[in-house]
Design a protein that fits this description.
Blueprint (H helix, E strand, L loop, with lengths): L12 H15 L2 E5 L1 H8 L6 E7 L3 H12 L5 E3 L4 E6 L2 E7 L1 E5 L6 E5 L2 H6 L9 E2 L5 E2 L5 H7 L1 E2 L5 H7 L2 H13 L2 E2 L3 H8 L10 H12 L4 H10 L2 H5 L1 H4 L14 H10 L6 H9 L4 H4 E3 L5 E3 L2 H15 L4 H13 L13 H11 L3 H13 L7 H13 L14 H8 L5 H15 L8 H9 L9
Parallel strand pairs: 2-5, 10-11
Antiparallel strand pairs: 1-2, 1-8, 3-4, 4-5, 6-7, 8-9, 12-13
Helix pairs in contact: 1-3, 6-8, 7-9, 7-10, 10-13, 13-14, 13-19, 14-17, 14-19, 16-17, 18-20
């Protein structure tokens, strides 16, 4: 009987790197670690489970097939056009790419790719800090001569002239903004100017909307989102992909506001307490409805009538255009519609019924709604968020057990139809909604079906209509 080999999953990145080193030596494959994996290790940003390898010549498939067998992972997935191979397992993503040179056709978003040398591959990369390579003995190869210095100086510099680098692949401009947001780096002199010159390329067919979407998501969920959005503005990219944000610039505000709408939005983004995408999107777009609703009253105050509703509708259009999911679009629009309500809360004037209605309106988005309100407040001169914090505690107290945020209609459909003497229809759901609202307003106790029926019989107009 054949002996069964027991496959042990890797417990540390070092085991995967050692397996790559051994496999490359056994197969005679020239391979290096490259990209963000090398950059982040040198920066001390932790050890990633996303490992990028560069293979010169043939052997990428065989190299990763060896790794897959070694750890019992799925077979390598090949992407022929780009010369890449990928394996996944135990939380690791290992990708090998063949050294290449590429050129983008002016009329296409897909590059023409040919095999290349190590030097050709390194020089065609986006920024010098991402062009560092490392052999499996730990030696760093800085073929551009500037990568290590730029890394420790916190500078994003293109290996070649930035105009040529961005012309080859305009997505690199968005990547530059994203790395500013992720790493806290600054752009090298001349980079923003090159972005402005090439910003017109930041649209299909040169770049797909999906690729732009992915970079925006990474930017917004980074540590310094405001800095990244500023790069998009300074480089002319915001006008191309989010002109609605660009329209906020110079729109003045009154009251506790100390910035125009654009600067207020970016300061609010900095105050967002988590890297949750939906919350960050809601903060980014919470005042997008202000420019089209802006008016100046007779007393000089700046007004924005119904801007939460207008902004929610605009956000739905923007996020649909940028290929966000239906759930993300719905949740962001809801948060924008509700973003002023926690800010307008006052303990003395808001009774329990009003708080219950807000609990129900927010539903599962309650914590995010409060985070958006706090960020909005902290980006103004208003003295603190104590009212919002008190509201959060009151909501928690009133909704222990989730009976308000997930309310159940006190009467079922059969009972409602019996009371009305009518058959089924959409009207039943409308009546149930009215019953829930009345219950939350304190018209009758939760769970008291008899009191709910008495209240409904006292409001026969609810039983009429379609």
């Amino acid at each position: 009987m054949a002996e069964i080999e027991v496959v042990q999953p890797p417990t540390h990145t070092a085991e995967v790197l050692d397996a790559l080193r051994t496999a490359a030596a056994e197969l005679g494959v020239e391979a290096y670690l490259v990209g963000g994996f090398v950059r982040d290790r040198l920066l001390g940003r932790g050890t990633s489970k996303d490992i990028d390898a560069l293979v010169v010549g043939e052997g990428a498939v065989e190299l990763l097939a060896h790794i897959a067998r070694r750890f019992g992972w799925s077979r390598p997935q090949r992407f022929e056009r780009f010369g890449t191979v990928q394996v996944r397992g135990d939380g690791f993503v290992v990708e090998a790419v063949r050294a290449r040179r590429e050129r983008y056709n002016p009329d296409s978003r897909k590059p023409d790719v040919e095999p290349g040398t190590l030097e050709e591959d390194i020089w065609r990369r986006d920024f010098t800090v991402n062009a560092l390579a490392q052999d499996f003995e730990g030696r760093i190869l800085d073929l551009t001569g500037r990568g290590v210095d730029d890394l420790y100086a916190g500078v994003l510099r293109t290996p070649l002239d930035p105009a040529d680098t961005f012309d080859e692949d305009p997505l690199r401009m968005f990547r530059g903004a994203r790395f500013v947001a992720q790493l806290g780096f600054r752009l090298a002199p001349g980079t923003v100017e090159a972005m402005r010159e090439q910003a017109h390329l930041a649209r299909p067919p040169k770049i797909s909307v999906e690729r732009i979407h992915d970079e925006l998501v990474r930017l917004l969920t980074s540590q310094h989102p405001r800095a990244g959005v500023d790069v998009l503005h300074e480089g002319g990219l915001l006008t191309e992909v989010l002109p609605e944000l660009e329209a906020m610039r110079g729109v003045e505000q009154s009251g506790y506001h100390c910035y125009d709408v654009y600067d207020h939005t970016l300061h609010a983004l900095d105050h967002t307490p988590s890297a949750d995408l939906v919350t960050r999107l809601a903060v980014l777009l919470h005042d997008v409805g202000k420019p089209p609703t802006h008016a100046v009253a007779e007393d000089g105050r700046h007004t924005f009538h119904d801007h939460p509703q207008v902004g929610a509708e605009m956000a739905e259009e923007i996020l649909t255009r940028l290929r966000f999911s239906g759930d993300e679009i719905r949740d962001v629009a809801t948060l924008i519609r509700l973003h002023l309500r926690p800010i307008q809360y006052q303990h003395d004037t808001h009774g329990d019924a009003a708080v219950r209605r807000l609990i129900r309106a927010a539903g599962k988005l309650r914590a995010r709604m409060l985070d958006v309100a706090r960020a909005d407040t902290l980006a103004s001169s208003y003295p603190g968020t104590h009212e919002i914090d008190e509201l959060a505690e009151r909501m928690e107290r009133l909704d222990r057990g989730g009976g308000i945020s997930r309310p159940k209609a006190p009467l079922d459909g059969d009972t409602i139809m019996r009371i009305a003497g009518r058959g089924p229809g959409r009207w039943v759901g409308r009546v149930q909604d009215a019953l829930v609202e009345a219950m939350l307003d304190g018209e009758f106790p939760p769970g008291d079906a008899g009191a709910a029926e008495a209240w409904l019989r006292a409001h026969p107009e609810l039983l009429e209509g379609p």
